[in-house]
Amino acid sequence: MAESNSGIKITDVRVSNFRALKNVEVPLGDLTILLGANNAGKTSFLDALYAAIGAGRKILGQDDVRLEGGEALPPKERAVTVDVCIRPLDDDGNIAANFPAGSFWTNLWGTGIKQEMDGDFDEFVGIRTTLAWSHSKGDYAIERRFLKEWRGFDDWLATPIDETSKVNAAQIEPLALHYIDAKRDLEDDLRKQGSFWRRMTEDLGLSDADVESFEKALSDLNHELVGKSGILKHLKENLADIRPVVSAEGGEIDISPVARKLRDLSKGVDISFTAAGSQSFPLARHGMGKRSLASLMVFRAFASWKGKQAADAGDHVHSLLALEEPEAHLHPQAQRSFFSQVKSIPGQRVVSTHSPYFAAQAQLEDLRLFIRRNGETTVTRLNLSELDRDDVRKLRHGVVSTRGDLLFSRAVVFFEGETEEQALPILAEAYWGRTIHELGFSFVRVGGNGNYFPFIWLAQRLDIPWYVFSDGEQETIDRLEGALHKTGMPPVASSANVVVLPGGNDFEAQLISEGYLPEIEEALDFIHGKKGYLDAYIEKHHGLPRAKNKPATDYKCENGRIIAAGDALDSRLKTRVAEPLAEMLAILPDQARRFPAHIRALFERISDDHCLTQVGEEAS
Q1: What is the pLDDT of residues 22-67, one digit of tens each?
Q2: How do residues 448-477 score in pLDDT, each as one tens digit?
Q3: Three-state secondary structure along 381-398?
Q4: 235, 269, 318, 484: which could join 175 in a potential S-S bond, CB 3.0 to 4.6 Å?
Q5: Whole-angstrom Cα Rg for the chain
Q6: At 445, phi and psi to the nearest 5?
Q7: DSSP character for 245?
Q8: How far apart are CA 413 and CA 269, in angstroms?
Q9: Phi, psi (5° rounding) for residue 320?
Q10: Burial annotation 71-92 (CB, 10 A radius, 16+ → b, else e)
Q11: Contact in structure between 22 and 376 (CB atoms under 8 Å)
């Protein structure tokens, strides 16, 4: 379905003192994807936007005013403020400088259209909605006014308003927001007054003559059904005994098994769904996935039909949808494919999601990340102008499409290889007594020492706390330094969130250097199912020639066993050893040896940043 151009776009929304949101700005595009953990403020933002320009009446009050720490009630002088900026579009859907003279929107808003006082004096409409205590009413009251300016975010609350007139309902209706929350269900919508289904089917668009003809046919059908059904006839005869009790004038009892009026047909309508090779079942017998999906498809039909009616009447309507968790009740592959259905809904769409599968389908510039720390929510977006085309490609296909879960993380740990991917989560659970998933952390393998940059850049720009656990080979350090420099971060030596293994060691070599050879031998025995694997390896490979210009193997020298262990842990074998080795370390009786020094340093740093304590320690 082609994108509709209503002639306007809502470009920015600002919210102050609404529930969890103290002071945020969210730029909107044609499609805007809201990401973030539970309680980060995504639903609060959608509710604030609905309170400002929603298609309906949402009762707001004291419970919607932000509370500071320790407050039981908000002070009366604290007000909720929601500002919405609307700009004109040209025929190609790009932001225009002016609203066309004599256009629908110009006539609708009149003097509410203002010019920016700097730059090119572009026109805009700013609508401020306030929820403030009214001493005369003894309650909170909502008021809407046009803004005289659209200031920068730093002092937006001081923007003067137009005191000459209020924004009325007629000036909001053509751009009104429709909000579909996560509890959507078409089976409920079929029966609920005011649902999109009922609003579309109350008037079927038939001529008066057609209505009269169909309703006569319905009446005849009712008479025929009652006349031929012994059960219905028996019920009618017994219900007739109501007459002498309630009416001295007599009266008539009739039974209508089928609705007699066309406007009532939608109240009893049923929708069935038939899968290939299966019998048809009513929608009520299907799961919530199909029912939720069907509800969204009805809204799409409503939005396109409403736009067609407005166009036919010479009016304009700006379709604006707020959609909460469209992935609800859908399996992962369906979440991916459903993205195209959301994109096909005309107008602007603002979607909150917890699905990495859904978010990965969006353009990177459409993402808005809500992060809540210390009781305050911030909203960040990506500035792709910092990247070249190849970086954007790596970011999309190498990061977001494969590890979209990091967009929802409380913190992220990056590392190079598969060994760390297997071992670190096990040791982390032993250290904190909870899995990384319970803690909201993502441990992410970047897949090679040349791939750190897009991962670090994404986490840094979205304000997600990140850490690096890196091998100590010089090539790896050089590439990591390059990634940090390119991101605008300090070098390795000055970055407390970057842990690099010393002496050029990789993960396994560092464990050997710290005295974990007995545990490595035990892990080798475990994966091969027999004791003495390293001894057998030494006997088999001692004295064999190495690569060109290198001496033969000497496993009988002073450190020969250590050298043999390192050789035995080749690239294929060390990934098999990683998991059992980590499990062995995690249960060592000596707690001081459970966590190798640099792994402990990483966990201590994360603990300090996120107020965590090692399991068994007394909370401070």
Answers
A1: 999 999 999 999 998 888 899 999 999 999 998 776 678 899 999 9
A2: 888 999 999 999 998 899 999 999 999 999
A3: CCCHHHCCHHHHHHHHHH
A4: 318
A5: 33
A6: -85, 125
A7: H
A8: 53
A9: -135, 115
A10: eeebeeebbbbbbbbbbbbeee
A11: yes
